[in-house]
Design brief:
This protein is an alpha/beta fold and 397 residues long. Helices cover 34% and strands 23% of the residues. The structure holds flavin mononucleotide.
Length: 397
Amino acid sequence: MKKNIVVCVTGGIAAYKAADLVSKLSKKHNVRVLMTRDALQFVGSETFKILSKNEVYTDVFTDEDKPMHIEIAKWADIFVVAPASANTIAKLAHGICDNMVTLAILASKAKKLVVPAMNTVMLENDATQENIKTLKDRGLDILESDCGLLACGDIGKGKMPDPERIIDRIDYLLANKDLKKYKILVTAGHTVEAIDPVRYISNRSTGKMGYHIAKKAYNRGADVTLIIGPNDLDIKDSFNIVNVVSSKDMYEAVNKEFVDADALIMAAAPADFTPANYSPEKIKKEVDESNDIKIKKTEDIIKSLKDKKEGKVVIGFAAESENVIENAKKKLVSKGADMIVANDITLKGSGFKSDENKVSFVYKNKNATSFDLMKKSELADIILDNLAELLKDRKKN
Ligand SMILES: Cc1cc2nc3c(=O)[nH]c(=O)nc-3n(C[C@H](O)[C@H](O)[C@H](O)COP(=O)(O)O)c2cc1C
């Protein structure tokens, strides 16, 4: 659902990054931008006007026939001060409202996210730290600055985080916490089944789908544990992450975490087969040209939980290349799952490696639902809507 977001840009070098933030936010939400006078020294207001498709206000006294600070204060679901200068943080902490940014924030009951960005010494100064603490104590959300090479040439803390991290935090702050009180276990990615120290059997699952589900479940208030195979994802989240390598590791981790979980979403693609014998030495190609690698079946993780799932919800995934719904139905029954997310891996742009997926949901007691191709992040929320329903039904029974 579209939200009303007010991005407040203040006078810091990182103001240019706010343009990217506004551009990304505007694709999903209604965005308005407020700027301080000094912010205009770093980026022009025209950029933000075009990106947000809304008038940008800097002065308290506008040409409008109503007080715009009150109008915007009431309109907002959230204020995001990014970058937040030391000066603006100080003003916010002391209720000084001598510009459009500080005035609208003071006049609003909306949520507030402050993203400090400045030189390390300025950030670590007792005055700034006390002001940040004051804001935290009053319930404003503060996003920690990143460390790295700063524009002034110093290396240290104070960089404005990337727009993606700010958007993650906005999503978290705005999400309905309908999964609060639930422990949700999510698996993601592929596993690696070693043949010898250098070779292995694996598959193309990237872990993106499961990662999006874990992230969204966390945003929706759940106590999340993500069990994930080797991956290239840039995971910096605050939920519990268990890294595994082989399908045996994943089997053990899931069985351990499942004990006190309310739900499992098995989005991982653990290998179905593993080498029957691991060779601790690299197998020499000269040894035996006809050397067959003997494989054996791995433990089926969902099936292994069939008798332990009393009162829990289990959602599985099925990557199918033919008869998608019929095969998913068979899988639902044989694995004792409550719902299967079936995807047709033969479709271009869907499934492994892609950021999008085209899936059908197969349930126990109702007809399957098919969806159009959509972003994995959007699909994650729809899967979690279904999980929330299944968890509610579980409570009723
Ligand atoms: C080149 C330059 C870069 C600056 N960068 C920052 C910065 O990154 N963070 C910060 O807090 N202040 C920075 N300042 C100082 C602020 O611009 C100054 O405190 C200003 O009064 C902030 O006003 P505002 O909070 O109303 O935007 C910088 C100043 C200059 C001249």
